[in-house]
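Lab notebook, design round three. We kept the backbone fixed and only want residue identities now. Task for the bench partner: fill in a sequence for the structure below.
Input structure tokens:
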């Protein structure tokens, strides 16, 4: 079970954290208070890009993008307005990104090179620099619409599942969430799938041989 392991770094979090060094290096940690303000968190519905009520009044960082690639800098936010601003406190070049194996903190190694995206156990993986503020930079040639609407405005409407369109924005937690909420709640707290990936709806193809009779793929939740 892969998770934001609050038990592994219990007690590291400090009130008033607002510097990159507070979230990286020897201070690398995750605790409930890093994503939730216990006096302001509430239940309710929201749509991307508006911050979810569960993260009300949570701190974050806003990248300054000037060109493709790494952000030119970051602005600290005492109250984030977007989910990604909370995530980027730890998952961007705002802080010192870890060099340990990102397989999870359970001691297992799933591929020889732990610094690669673990989509399967093959050798031809995509190098993973893990600066997500760089990956979702709106100056890049392409990106998922986490920060702003995507560049490709000519995608046919039929390419999307009902409820999604070229105008849609997505939360980080649309893809990173518990694949089986009955095993431990919703959200990106943990998942039995690598990278805290959410579950996938079954789909069927016209060709019963590939896959047969039904397969699962996260991408088809939206596409």
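Proposed sequence:
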């Amino acid at each position: 079970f892969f998770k934001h392991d609050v038990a592994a770094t219990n007690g590291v979090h400090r009130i008033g954290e607002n510097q990159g060094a507070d979230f990286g290096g020897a201070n690398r940690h995750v605790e409930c208070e890093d994503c939730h303000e216990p006096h302001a968190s509430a239940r309710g519905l929201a749509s991307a890009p508006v911050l979810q009520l569960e993260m009300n009044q949570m701190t974050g960082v806003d990248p300054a993008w000037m060109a493709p690639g790494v952000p030119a800098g970051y602005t600290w936010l005492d109250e984030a307005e977007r989910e990604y601003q909370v995530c980027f406190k730890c998952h961007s070049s705002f802080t010192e990104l870890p060099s340990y194996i990102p397989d999870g903190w359970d001691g297992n190694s799933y591929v020889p090179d732990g610094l690669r995206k673990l989509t399967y156990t093959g050798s031809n993986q995509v190098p993973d620099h893990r600066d997500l503020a760089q990956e979702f930079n709106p100056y890049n040639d392409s990106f998922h619409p986490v920060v702003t609407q995507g560049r490709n405005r000519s995608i046919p409407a039929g390419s999307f599942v009902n409820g999604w369109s070229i105008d849609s924005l997505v939360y980080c937690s649309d893809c990173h969430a518990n694949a089986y909420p009955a095993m431990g709640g919703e959200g990106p707290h943990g998942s039995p799938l690598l990278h805290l990936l959410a579950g996938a709806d079954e789909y069927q193809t016209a060709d019963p041989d590939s896959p047969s009779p039904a397969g699962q793929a996260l991408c088809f939740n939206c596409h």
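Keep this in mind before ordering anything: Residues 1-160 form one domain.
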